[in-house]
Amino acid sequence: MKNLRKLINSKIKPLVIPGVYDAIGAKIAQKVGFEAMFQTGYGTSATLLGMPDYGFIGATETLDNARRISNAISVPLIVDVDTGYGNALTVRKLIQELERSGVSGVFLEDQKWPKRCGHMKGKEVIPKEEYAEKLQSAIDAKSNKDFIIVARTDARATEGLDQAIERGNYYKKIGAELIFVKHQNLSKR
C-alpha cells in the first residue's frame, strides 16, 4: 500500500489531489507531478456508464476501477465509495477488498441511497447514528493503520453548516481520520 498518511503528515503546504477516473488519466497526473490521486465517483460513473453520479455505480465497478488505477500508479489512491453500497457489512467487505488492492484510503458519504452527486440538488442524509455504524465498520475493517477513512457529510446542503460541522465532529470522535464537509449545491440540476 502506498502511504497517504505519511505524505499528508510530511507536507508543510496543502496536498493537491486531482480527481481521476481511469488508469491512463492517473498515469498522466502522476507523470506531471501529483503525489496522490482521488478516484471520483462521478468520473467513474460517467466514464463506465455515461451516466451521472446517481447511484448507478456499485461496489463491483468501484472496486474494479480502483484496482486498475492503483495498479497503474505508484502514488497513493483514495477512492470515493459513495455510501458504501449497503449497510455496515457491505462497507466492511468493501474496505477489506480495497485495502488488499493497494488503495490508500476511502471517502465514505452520509447520504441516503440512492445517492446523488454532491454537486446536484435533491440530496438527503441518513441519521448520523446510522452513518456511524457504517463508519465504525470501515474503521474496524482496515488492517493497515495507514489506510485512511475520510468521513464525508452532505448535511450542509440539507441541514445547514452548523449541523454539518456537528456531524463532522461526531464522525471524528468515532475515529474518522479526515472530515470532508461538502459545500452547498451550486448546480440547478
What this model shows, in words?
With 189 residues, this protein is α/β, with parallel strands linked by helices. It has a single domain (4-148), classed as TIM Barrel (Alpha-Beta Barrel), CATH 3.20.20.60. 45% of the residues lie in helices and 13% in strands. It is built from eight helices and six strands, in the order H-E-H-E-H-H-E-H-E-H-E-H-H-E. The protein has helices at 4-10, 23-31, 41-49, 59-72, 88-100, 128-141, 155-159, 161-174; strands at 19-20, 37-39, 77-80, 105-109, 148-153, 178-181. A six-stranded parallel sheet has the order 1-2-3-4-5-6. Helix 2 (23-31) packs parallel to helix 4 and helix 5 (88-100) packs parallel to helix 6 (128-141).
